[in-house]
Amino acid sequence: MVKLSPSLLSANFANLQDDLDKTKGLGIEMLHIDVMDGIFVPNISFAFKVISDIRGKNDYFFDTHLMIEEPIRYIDDFKKAGSDRITVHYEACKDLRKTLKAIKDSGMEVGLTAKPETDPKLLLEYFDLIDLILVMSVRPGFGGQKFMPETKATMTLYRKYIDENGLDIKIQVDGGIKTTNVREVLDLGVDEIVSGSDIFGKDIGGQIQAYHEIFKEYE
Ligand code: DX5
Ligand code: ZN
Q1: Structure pTM?
Q2: Which residues are annotated as active site (predicted)?
Q3: Ligand nearest to the CA of 193
């Protein structure tokens, strides 16, 4: 089944564990963790302390999306904090191949993504090194933005490339996804859905159930 990765960014940090507890027992396997440095994107979120604090209480696969310059500097720190997968931006790495290899060598899964305006074909030469390709369907930096329909062409391109080459790579979509538009991207054959404001800004458990009901249509 398609997997839902609720994005922590839209949770209430004054009651973070309360919000996380509301995601439990509903078939969720992973949590999307957005780290921003105020340089690669015009926003700053959180990092190691929050991740390691929630690690002890939440038995989820930590799907960590790094919107930071030169993430290679911090791979060991994210590993120690409890990340299970690190997704880095194409534009943020001077030596992308070395960065992706360092993530793999640390024992974590490897994800790659790019801003919506970057040519998606530029990422294909790195597909030998990744477990996940993330299609950003908003400009990275903030939750609650509007889905950019032009990014659907990128999802189609990657689905075709992965299938034609028999690759074991998942496609994730992140940004502006809601229960009301998620079918648009599920129709394109994506594997993982990130959703922040549409889950944590609403009835958390009810929204998770609503997504899973929709995913069943694609089994
Ligand atoms: C945006 C982040 C997203 C964000 C998605 O830069 O990468 O993960 O939390 O939030 P929504 O689902 O509200 O667009
Ligand atoms: Zn994200």
Answers
A1: 0.98
A2: 34 (proton acceptor), 174 (proton donor)
A3: 1
The sign one gets for the Cα dihedral 80, 63, 123, 107 is positive
Does 84 participate in catalysis according to the annotation?
no
CA R_g for the chain:
16
In this structure, which residue's CA is closest to atom 6 in ligand 1? 140
Q: Provide the pLDDT confidence category of residue 41 given band limits of 50, 70 and 90.
A: very high
| Distance (Å) from CA 190 to ligand 1 centroid | 17
**5, two tokens:** 């990765």
Distance CA 186, CA 188 (A): 5
Q: What residue spans of the chain are helical by DSSP H? A: 16-21, 48-55, 75-81, 96-105, 152-164, 182-186, 197-200, 204-216
Q: Within the chain, how many helices (H) and strands (E) appear? A: 8, 8
Contact 36 CB / ligand 1 (< 6 Å)? no
- pLDDT in the model for residue 2: 98
DSSP letter assigned to residue 156: H
pLDDT tens column, 53-64: 999 999 999 999
User: Model confidence over 138-182: pLDDT tens digits?
Assistant: 999 999 999 999 999 999 999 999 999 999 999 999 999 999 999
